[in-house]
Amino acid sequence: MANALIKPNSGGTVAAALKEGNVQFIEQLAAALPSHITPDRMVRVLLTAFNKVPELADCSKGSVWQSILDCCALGLEPDALGRAYLIPYKNECTLQIGYKGLIDLAMRSGKVKSIHADKVADMDTFEYELGNDAKLKHMPYLKGDRGKFYCYYAYVHGIDGSFSCDIMTMDEILAIKSRSQSGKYNKGPWATDFDEMAKKTVVKRLSKMLPLSPEFVDAIQHDNKVNALKDIRDASIDAAPKFSIAETEAEIVQETNEDHDQELDDVPLGAEEYSDPEDAIE
C-alpha cells in the first residue's frame, strides 16, 4: 500500500502501520492483548482482514483503531473462523462478535462443560421441553432432503451438572437480523454467514442462564451496543462510543431477560483505555 494513495486519518494508515511494524502502534496493541494472543499473531490476522475486506482502508482511522482495541480487549481474533468480524459501514468500522467468539468466551468462564447451537428442519426429529426439568432432543434427518429449516436452539451443560436450553423460531431470528446494521442492508456476516449469526443470536438469548465470565459480559454489552446504533459514529476516536462492562453479572442477567435486542445502558469501561498513537500512524 503506497503511502501516497492512503487517505489521511483513514483505516489505510492503520494498515500501513501494521505492515511497517510501527513500534508505537505495536506497543499499544500488545498492551491491549491478553496473554494467549501475541502481537505478531494479531498483526498477521489484522493484515489478512484488511486484504479480505479492502473497504476497511476507507473507514475512519478512529473507528478502525477502536474496533481493533475492542477486539484485543475481548481476546478475540477477526479471523476466517468467524470469532469476530471487522465490518465497514458507510466509512465507519465496527466490531461484530461471531458465534464461535461467544462460544470461546463462554468456555473461558471455567464453569461451562459444553455449549452448542444448531438448526432444526421439517424432517428432523425434535423434542423440546421447558421447565425445571428442561429437555432437548434433536435427531437430524439423514436419508435425504431435511426440508425447510424452521428454528434454532442452543444448550449449555455446566460443570456442576446443570443444563439450560433455549429455542428461537426462524421468524424471531429474521426479526433480529432486520434490526441489525449489516442485516438490514444484507451485508457483512448476516449475508455471508447467516447460519453462524443465527446461532449467535440464540446463544445470546440463552446467556441469561449462563455462568457469565467478565469477557462474555463485555462481548454481550458490545454486541448489543453495536446492533442498537442508529447513527454513524463520529470519526474521532475521542468522540466514538466505547463498549462497556456491566457493573455486575446480576445486572446483565436481569437485562438479558428483557427483549434481547434492547440497547443496554452505558457504564464506565472497567479496563484500561488506550490512546490512538496518532503521530505514529498518520
From the structure above, extract its key features.
about 280 residues, alpha+beta, disordered C terminus, two-stranded antiparallel ribbon, single chain
Characterization of this structure:
The protein is of the alpha+beta class and 282 residues long. It has one domain. 41% of the residues lie in helices and 17% in strands. The protein has 12 helices and 7 strands. The protein has helices at residues 11-20, 23-32, 39-52, 61-74, 99-108, 170-178, 181-184, 189-192, 194-206, 214-228, 249-256, 278-281, and strands at residues 84-89, 92-97, 112-121, 125-129, 135-139, 149-158, 163-169. The protein has a 3-stranded antiparallel sheet with strand order 3-6-7. A two-stranded antiparallel sheet has the order 1-2. A two-stranded antiparallel ribbon has the order 4-5. Strand 6 and strand 7 (163-169) form a beta hairpin. Helix 1 packs across helix 4, helix 5 runs parallel beside helix 9 (194-206) and helix 5 runs antiparallel to helix 10 (214-228). It is globular and about 55 Å long. The two termini are 14 Å apart. Residues 230-282 have low confidence and may be disordered.
